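re: that chain from earlier
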Amino acid sequence: MAAGSLPEMAVNTKLRAAFTLVAGLGLAGCGAMLTSPLPVTPPDAASAPQAPAPLPPESARLAAYYQRVEDGLLVQGLLRTDGGGPDVPYSARQLAETFEQIALFEEYTTSGNRLVARRNKSNLQRWRDPVVMRVSFGASVPADQQQRDSDAVNAYARRLARATGHPVRSARSGANFNVLILNEAERRTIGPLMRRLLPGISDAAVESAVNMPRSTYCAVYAIAPGGKGEFSGAVAIIRGEHPDLLRLSCIHEELAQGLGLGNDSPSARPSIFNDDEEFGLLTTMDEQMLSILYDRRLTPGMTAETARPIIRDIAAELTGGSS
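^ sequence. v structure.
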């Protein structure tokens, strides 16, 4: 995603990244409760309210930086939360073409032992089994922030279920989609946990999470074993240092991308899947793309060529046939 002309950021700096990793290995144990040598805790674990511990110096500096970023985006009229309106109309054709760009292409590919930004064609990918989300936090994330974020994920899971018509819920155990909200030092120790949650995840993907640059705000990693286009596990990583709106924006984008809308496009509007940061929260168009993705007329593994006429029919139905 591209930022505006902020003092400490270059135009076209990548703000968020979504990675979809396809592995040919099974995911035994992926639904287990989240355990780790990292002090990661569910929000209900605290026995009594406690004064928040001061952030480590590095996280404090990042928090100040990301607050400036959010402030700068808001000053420019970006990070909209209105879901789109009369100023951003779109047709059935635009919806279908945007869906194809977002769902049937990927942002990243593996080159050697690194993930690199390179747009590639992809077959349709989505979840077959019910999606169970669990949000967990690094120990340095304040308790009041944990509660806000936990409530946000719970509410958003319900919204995603309505948009997709697919079972999506949050729970304290049995998760196959783990949402980790961590501060800097905690995220750097995340490698063993990621390997446990997503068996078969590539070294390149783990390295990208452990050594996430400041310009990457959040990421999601989803795994589809066997090349069938069916996700069976995902991990979203969101920086705990973000201010509230930027953090909520990460939750909205990464959890939706982890359901199968894995790419970004400069022509996607009104949409969160656009690096221009105009929209911070899921839009009406995004909900319609999720509806298309989980429509029973489409099946995991479909190519763009096979899916295209079906996508156009569904898009026309969703928009009342406008062209």
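The longest strand covers residues 114-121.
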